[in-house]
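Worked Example 4.2. Consider the chain below.
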Amino acid sequence: MSHLLKRFFYTLPLVFIGCLGSMPGHAAESSAVAIAAGWRHTCALTTAGGVKCWGDNSAGQLGDNTTTNRLTPVNVSGLGSGVAAIAARYDHTCVITTAGGVKCWGVNTYGQLGDNTTMNRLTPVDVSGLGNGVAAIAASYDHTCALTTVGGVKCWGKNDLGQLGDDSYMNRLTPVDVSGLASGVAAIAAGGLHTCALTTAGGVKCWGSNVFGEIIDNYGELDYGTPEEVRGLSTGVMAIAAGSGFTCALTRAGEIKCLGVAIGGEMGNVCNAVHMLSNCLTPVDVTGFASSVSAIYAGYWHVCALTTAGGVKCWGNNEYGQLGNSVHGQGSSSIPLDVLGLASGVSAIAAGGGAHTCALTTAGGVKCWGLNTSGQLGDGSATKRSTPVDVIGLGGGVTPGPVVPASPLTGLWWNQNESGWGMSLTQRDSMAFLAWYTYDSIGKPTWFVISSCPLVGSGCTGDLYSVVGGTPLGVPWNGSGKVVTKVGTGSVAFSDNNTGTLNYSVNGVNGTKQITRQMFATGSVQPSVNYSALWWNQNESGWGVAITQQYGMIFATMYTYDASGNPVWYVASSCPLSGNNCAGDLYQVTGGSAPTVTWNDATKVVTKVGTVNFAFQNSSAGTLTYTINGVSGSKLISRQLF
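Applying the procedure from the previous section yields the following structure tokens:
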């Protein structure tokens, strides 16, 4: 994954899911950084970059070179390290390696493993023709898709209903391009028999089966062999999920909208007939959320949402307890229900393609609930559970060696002896994004980004990019002149939650910097919403804002361009929150030393250049208003889900 360039300044933000675990007496306890749930099996990605799976193994979907079901996690053969992301849906599993390649195993009846055969595989095999340019994967029942680092989509496997999007309706044993989606895609989701893409403009396009109206309200067309724009979801979408006959989207305004079939309340409390077939042919709102939603996940006939407070809510079919709320019993629900015991402390969810659900905790543990006939809950039994149980061996306990930070790395990092440059780190699940604001050889502000830095062990490593040719904030955006260049590599290693080391190679010059988490505010009460994140305007990919919040104070760094299109950055180092707003002075720092030479603080000049105001509509959307050197403007911004 070190070759992935995500979209904050250029393209592609993606969320990854995976699987992991161990059993006392069989292997040392592990911590998970990502999870993925198939039909009746589950997998996890470990802090060491390895993969563990458990549950049904009748077709080798656990990857341990057997067809024996496992009630607790086992290691996937040959994948003890070097994995950055994982996906599962039905009876096959796929991973992205840290080099950006893809490996799959399990059922291969229609070529869904992409190895140019239809042979089931008990251990991982390489997907042919993808190289090392994959940013994300989505596994469906009989097909698989990949999002490339340039924002294109490729699919392989079964294609009888057009689910590969190449307008051929022919099964493919190796990847083919999805028609019209060679670039401009930010995320992908694979449902039962259809596939969807979130564009960088915030719209949704889907292809494949439309028998339930999961793509568009046109009963005359039961399938689409090429991408079709979903009506009502052409703009303003920040995340997507696809289930078996339905599609859901999370908007920038924090709303969840779904369309398609509902057999158990998947559409929310509108257009539903619980336990009866009912269709919503256009997107309808799912209501019942007291707090903001940061991500959505679709299972077979149920949906779950992760709130910004780290809690989990689920709705839809609950025949096997997959909603995780025993108070409701085993009845389906069109109203989102709290998963018992998971009001906070969750970083990701995996809604299985069958009838189980799992959650990844911020401590690195995994909890699962629902159907358990094959041991897919990983608790050592085959008993279904209507409330979460711990996966054995995945308790998130401390392991020997370097400390894996238990709290998110998101924050402002610096070297206290070199005040005048820094790094804004944003962590989402097992992926980190690093924006490094520094200086060129003549002391002019410049910035670099590591837009895809998968966390493995006590740190992460990724490619370092420079972005030039963008448009200054004071004029209409024109992204056509933007040029993204790889200038080297960077890695960070953390000794604890607050200290670490940055190693880099910039244009052939290597160096090392000690970094610490910068503490700029104190207090006794944390505000209810934490705005720490990457923020951007999805229609102006190429600039952004990194916000770090501590108690009631915000420190914001704006990464943008000067009149010549060269990179420049500004900081609002003191922006106190008042309700949902903060206002502060904006500064530019020049004359600093390049990272490749000895720091000279005497040359640094700090100049006030204007003011800035952030007005947050909710935890995911807001407005940036600024004045810079006498030029004023306003930009819509949203939290970036990379």
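Residues 177 and 193 are 18 Å apart (CA to CA). The chain has no helices and 44 strands. Compare this with Example 4.1 before moving on.
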